[in-house]
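Sample entry (135 residues):
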Amino acid sequence: MVVDRKAHWESVFRKRADDELSWYEPRPEHSLELIRAAMSQGARSLIDIGGGTSRLVDALVDEPLDRIAVLDISDTALEKTRGRLGTRAGAIEWISADVTAVDEVGTFDIWHDRAVFHASIRRSSSAQSRRVVSS
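Predicted structure, serialized as tokens:
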């Protein structure tokens, strides 16, 4: 059985409230702690892979980052998050794409991926992250 990943995630984000999702965090403190540590070492750009409706971007928009991008396969998730951020959404680059198939998103100092890549695609995720994270 072939699964259409995009259709699957569009359905998930249309049918379920954010707090009904198993990965939901009202405030992603652990991720913020790690990101701030990288920023203290000079990191100034970040891409959040599979950011969906995560609340991480709500906190990041107030951080001293030069560039923030959120990539997700679900347009529905990205629209929900843009709506939640209101006028602050203009400070974010929104990328609607399947990270395993996207060719070019630019380079970033920080690649944040809380739960997108699983063991079955670990090799491709590693190769993709090397193309995106700046040296």
